[in-house]
Structures are given as C-alpha cells and as structure tokens.
C-alpha cells in the first residue's frame, strides 16, 4: 500500500481537527475550533473543550469527507491523537476513532501529537521532502518543545521543553495584564506595532550560564510574565503612562529571542543545519522573521509549513499515520487510551505485534 | 453503547431479544475498553449459538440503529461512549438514537421484577450528589415511564427527598436494555432526549477577575 488513504482525528486541545490524506497528499484539513467559547474565560477550559469536541465531531468528519470527495469505505485506515494533551478532550477523539475503525473494519493508528506537528511538513505541496536529521521547535498554547528528529517514524528525541508555561500561554497571560482579549498572540502583535523591542530589557528565562548547564534546551516563561506585571505596576505607582506598544514589543522580543537562541544552539551543538518550526505560535510574524534572519547567519535552513498545518489539525495526524503505514508499521491494538503526558519517543502507541497481526482490526 | 457508569455494549435482534452483551465495570478505562467491547459484541453476534435465531444473525449483519446512552454520568467517561456510538453509526450509515441511561436501568428492573409501585433509579453523580429518576411502569410504547425527570440530589438529602419510595442503586447499565428502549422509541417515532448529553451541571469554569497584583 504505497498511497494509503487515511482519516485523522485530533482533539488534544480546543480544535476538533479532521484531516484526510492520500499518502503525502492533503485532501482535507477540516477544523472546528471552540476558541470563541474559551475567550471569556481567558484561556482553554478543558471541560468546555471536551463538550465542544463531542458536538463538532460528527459534522466535522462529514465536512472533511465531502471536501476530500471520498467515502468512509474507501479509507485504508483511521488515525487518532493518543497524547499529549488534555485527557478529557483526547478521549472524545479516541472514542470516535475506535467507533469508526471498528464500524468500518479498518486499522487504527494511535499517534503522538507532537510528532504529528513535524509530519505536517511532509503534507506541504510542492516542497522538497523533509531532510533528516532536523531540529524541530514546536510552539503553541499547549507546548513549547525542542526536538531532534532523526527519522519521523522511528527516532525523535526530546531535547527540551517548557518547565512552566507554554509560550502561547505567556502571550495570553501578558495580553490579560495589558487588558487585551484572548487569544493573546495576535493581540500582542497588534499592540506591538510601532513599539521598540529594545525599550525594556525583560528577562530571558533559563538563559543564564548557571541555568544553561542543566536547562540548555528548556524554556521558562512564567518569570517573564511576572517581570512584565511588575514593570507595569512600578510605572503605574510612579504615575507614568504605560507605553503599551513598547511593553508588547519588548515582551515579544524576549519570547522570540529565547526560542530562536535555544533552537539555533541545538542546531549548532548537534551539527544539524536544519530547523523546522511548528505549532500555532509560528503565526507570530516576528518569530518567523527573527528565526529566518538568525538562522541564515548561522547557516541553518528553516522550514515552516503553511499556518493551517502549524496549528493543531487532523491532517498532520493522518499524515503521520500514512508515513507509519508506508514504512510497514502494524496498526495499534484497540486497548490504548489517552496519555496526557505521552513522551515524544512514543511516535505510535500500542502497535500490534507483527506476528499476531492478522487481518481487520484487533 | 453506554459509558455513563461502566462501559457497556449490547446488541439486540429485530425482535428485541439480546443477541450479545458485554461490559466492563468501573468509572475508569472507558477509552481503553470501548473499542474491544464493540468488537466482541460484533464478533459474538453471528455465532451467538443456541440463543441466536437466523433473524438475529441477519439483524447483526444489517445493523439498523445505534443507541447511545446519554447519561447522566461522569462527563469524561460519558462522552467516550457517545462519541464512539456516533462514529460507529456514521461508519454504518445508520441513525443514532439518544437514550437517557436511567431509562435502560429502569427497563432492566421492570423486565426482571415488574414492580407495581413507583421506584427510583439512583446513580452516583460525584461531588456527594446522586442522580435520581423516578419511574412507574412502562407507557403505551413500552418505554419506562419517568414520573419525575432526572435531578441531582445531595447525598445527605436522598433519605428525606425519597422517603419510602423504593430505591434501586445502579452501578451498571445494560447495553441490551438500552438498545431495547431505543427500539421501542424508534417504533413509536419518539425522541427521548436531545443530542446534548445529560450533563446536569455547567462546566467548571470561572470568568477571570482583573489580574491580581504581583507586588514589586
Ligand atoms: Zn499542538
């Protein structure tokens, strides 16, 4: 089976993502987001997300099939995110994926969400295939991870991750401090227009020599958020007007600086001249600009999938499963569950023994 | 399919008889269990042995409806069965019939001991509350007749609220009983509940207040 037709289900956070791919060809990337419902809470509420996934699941699958112009019985496999993510949200996708796979008598592949973000890159039309090894920086509201990818289906190593808030969360929290709505990323960008990114020197988390020993590739954004809040309080106490554009630009610069510095350090340390960016925060134009400029100086090639494939989506899950199938991997058993902290080394969950593998699902 | 308490899957034939039924007790493990339970029921159906008449086999081959237990029950587990039921039905191109899970519990009671008096179905609703529905026999369509709709009652008040009413505490739902309730609803052209699960509680979420001071 060289070009498997796969439907992928992704529900790890607030997007109900249904994707359909044929091998590396994207046929549908259908996303229903519950972001608007979370806006008034200032962040993703797990129970609200899980309720929305259940509501959106069936219509999203139907829309994806219509867009891809395929029928369920044409599918070669169903794929689903097993983790990491919000447990209650993941379980809606897993329930649906199992129901669908058993109903159709098709194999089911349970895969890793973070590795899915890397797989998004291979679905990009007209681009040369992803070269290995590559360093991958995945930045969203739910994760901030730096990975060394030697092979998409067999060998992904976690170099570092956030020890507290994800980068996207930091944007949301600082937006709130500045009185801006959720989600914070685009709001901070808007507020930063015309601001001086060097106006205020906010701290770069885990970047001191003493931190770098143990946390060379780890991130921390909680201290940065507090530093912004403190700076504003001090200015207010002194009766000074708050230069919102400067604060937003300087905060964003601190986040971008630490992300790019650590990612390029990994490229250089590991002798890997390739950097792949993924996750919803890649929508941030400043992050892309700084990454491209500094990578060019360092002789590192940067790849950025289209934004619709950077945010959480089902196509990347289907794409990863299609690669697993093409490389001869067995489907997952039906016994897996949701693993909210699934390590990145587990690219596929609960793969069946090749010996025991017969036909159909099981 | 019902995951409002444990995980349960049942299959009934066109005559309403149980063809196959499997379950796993406990409030956890629904996501892990649901696929295998479904598969077991489907595998058992055509070869259900002495109990299975040819019509049942035919029914299994051409599944016509999927019944989904809509709760009440702990939300995280409850949703798994509903999601699975809907996706399974989508795969077979058949409709989903939404059934209050207490109806299935009540039908099982009525089928086994036909109580003449009203009785209450009680299930654990977490947070020291109990979900209670009061039934009295079946209605003209053969569906358990809920004389008081499902409510959440603090555990400490159950005695006072229910008084001498017979109580039946349920920890397991029968998939086959759920299917039978659905079958009767379909026959009568009735909708028993909406497409939203019987959450009975709003999500836990607070609209945040203004950011608090961090001090300097
Ligand atoms: Zn993600």
Question: What would the keywords be for this entry?
Answer:
heterodimer; A: 362 residues; alpha/beta; Nucleotidyltransferase, domain 5; six-stranded mixed sheet; five-stranded mixed sheet; 12 helices; globular; B: 216 residues; four-stranded mixed sheet; 6 helices; binds zinc ion; iron ion binding (chain A); Gcp-like_dom (chain A); cytoplasm (chain A); transferase (chain A)
Describe this structure in words.
Chain B: InterPro entries: ATPase_NBD (IPR043129), Gcp-like_dom (IPR000905), T6A_TsaB (IPR022496). Chain B: It holds the Pfam family TsaD. The complex is a heterodimer of chains A (362) and B (216). Chain A has 362 residues and is α/β, with parallel strands linked by helices. Chain A is built from twelve helices and eleven strands. Chain A is 43% helix and 18% strand. In chain A, the strands form two sheets. Chain A has a six-stranded mixed sheet, sandwiched between helices. In chain A, strands 8-7-6-9-10 form a five-stranded mixed sheet, sandwiched between helices. In chain A, α5 packs parallel to α8 (222-237). The longest helix of chain A has 27 residues, at 244-270. Chain B is globular, with a radius of gyration of 19 Å. Mean pLDDT of chain B is 90; it is low at 47-54 and 56-60. At the A-B interface, α2, α3 and α8 of A face α1 and α3 of B. Bound molecules: zinc ion.
């Amino acid at each position: 089976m060289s070009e498997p037709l796969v439907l992928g289900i992704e529900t790890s956070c607030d997007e109900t993502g249904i994707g359909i791919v044929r091998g590396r060809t994207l046929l549908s990337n259908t996303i229903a987001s519950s972001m608007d419902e979370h806006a008034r809470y200032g962040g993703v509420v797990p129970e609200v997300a899980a309720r929305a996934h259940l509501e959106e699941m069936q219509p999203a699958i139907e829309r994806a099939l219509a867009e891809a112009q395929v029928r369920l019985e044409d599918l070669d496999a169903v794929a689903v995110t097993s983790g990491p993510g919000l447990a209650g949200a993941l379980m809606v996708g897993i329930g649906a994926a199992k129901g669908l796979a058993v109903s159709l008598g098709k194999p089911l592949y349970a895969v890793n969400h973070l590795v899915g973000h890397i797989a998004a890159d291979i679905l990009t039309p007209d681009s040369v295939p992803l070269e290995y090894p590559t360093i991958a920086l995945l930045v969203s509201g739910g994760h901030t991870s730096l990975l060394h990818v030697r092979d998409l289906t067999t060998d992904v190593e976690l170099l570092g991750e956030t020890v507290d808030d994800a980068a996207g969360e930091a944007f949301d929290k600082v937006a709130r401090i500045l009185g801006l709505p959720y989600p914070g990323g685009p709001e901070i960008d808007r507020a930063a227009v015309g601001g001086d990114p060097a106006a205020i020197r906010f701290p770069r988390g885990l970047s001191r020599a003493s931190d770098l020993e143990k946390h060379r590739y780890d991130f921390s954004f909680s201290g940065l958020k507090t530093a912004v809040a403190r700076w504003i309080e001090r200015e207010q106490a002194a009766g000074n007007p708050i230069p919102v554009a400067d604060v937003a630009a300087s905060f964003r610069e601190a986040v971008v600086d630490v992300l790019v510095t650590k990612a390029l350090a990994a490229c250089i340390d590991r002798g890997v001249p390739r950097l792949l960016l993924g996750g919803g925060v890649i929508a941030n134009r400043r992050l892309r600009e700084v990454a491209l400029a500094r990578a060019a100086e360092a002789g590192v090639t940067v790849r950025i999938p289209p934004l619709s494939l950077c945010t959480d989506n089902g196509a990347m899950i289907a794409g990863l499963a299609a690669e697993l199938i093409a490389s001869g991997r067995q489907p997952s058993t039906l016994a897996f569950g949701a693993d909210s902290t699934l390590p990145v080394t587990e690219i596929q969950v609960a793969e069946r023994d090749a010996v025991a593998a017969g036909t159909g699902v099981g | 399919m019902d995951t409002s308490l444990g995980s349960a899957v049942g299959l009934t034939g066109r005559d309403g008889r149980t063809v196959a039924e499997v379950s796993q007790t406990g409030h956890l493990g629904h996501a892990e269990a649901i696929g295998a339970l479904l598969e077991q029921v489907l595998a058992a159906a055509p070869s259900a042995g002495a109990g299975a008449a040819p019509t049942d086999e035919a029914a299994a081959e051409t599944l016509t409806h999927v019944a989904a237990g809509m709760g009440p029950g702990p939300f995280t587990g409850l949703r798994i069965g509903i999601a699975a039921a809907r996706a399974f039905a989508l795969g077979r191109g058949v409709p989903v019939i939404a059934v209050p899970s207490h109806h299935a519990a009540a039908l099982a009671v009525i089928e086994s001991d036909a109580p003449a008096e009203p009785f209450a179905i009680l299930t654990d609703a977490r947070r020291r509350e109990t979900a209670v529905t009061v039934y009295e026999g079946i209605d003209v369509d053969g569906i358990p007749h809920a004389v008081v709709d499902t409510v959440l009652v603090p555990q400490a008040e159950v005695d006072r609220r229910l008084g001498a009413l017979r109580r039946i505490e349920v920890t397991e739902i029968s998939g086959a009983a759920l299917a039978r309730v659905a079958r009767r609803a379909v026959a009568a052209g009735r909708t028993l509940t909406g497409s939203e699960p019987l959450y009975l509680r709003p999500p836990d979420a607070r609209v945040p207040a203004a950011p608090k001071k961090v001090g300097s």
